[in-house]
Amino acid sequence: MIFKETKLKGAYVIEIEKLKDERGYFARAWCQREFQEHGLDACLVQCNVSDSIEKGTLRGMHYQDPPYAETKVVRCTRGAIYDVMIDLRPDSRTFLQWIAETLTPDNGKMMYVPKGFGHGFLSLADHSMVFYQVSEFFAADYARGLRWNDPRLNITWPGEVTTISKKDQEWGNFDLALLSPLNGMV
Asked: Which residue of the set 63, 82, 112, 132 is catalytic?
């Protein structure tokens, strides 16, 4: 795997290394040892799958408060998504900065979303399937989110949002007071 740290400290885009032959290719998509060698959280306790039926489906911007803050490794296994992560660690020099990457099965890219980051994505094709590996079990009482179109976050989405859950529509705009549990996570 090829680990590329982004401008957001601790956040990575990871690419698979395709070993090709006449049959196609083989690649490693997860290796605990390689993650540990890069200083990344390699404790993954749960895997989740989502299928966004229609192009234009938005999921996010989600995170969990400590002690259930989670690291995510996100990949697209069908279709295409525009995957966004935003640094929500108030003590970070890149606080409120975001990055995005288009993930597809063909490009084999994954996003390593560390604890203290918000995460969401927009489906770029019908039936886009996303596979998430996470470091914490889901804890509904600690689940949080930010409004996907909050002007303070200024996330540039590459297409029209046509489908979004009621819960994701109701997340509030940025409020620093809500992020206080994420202090010290840098």
From this structure: 132
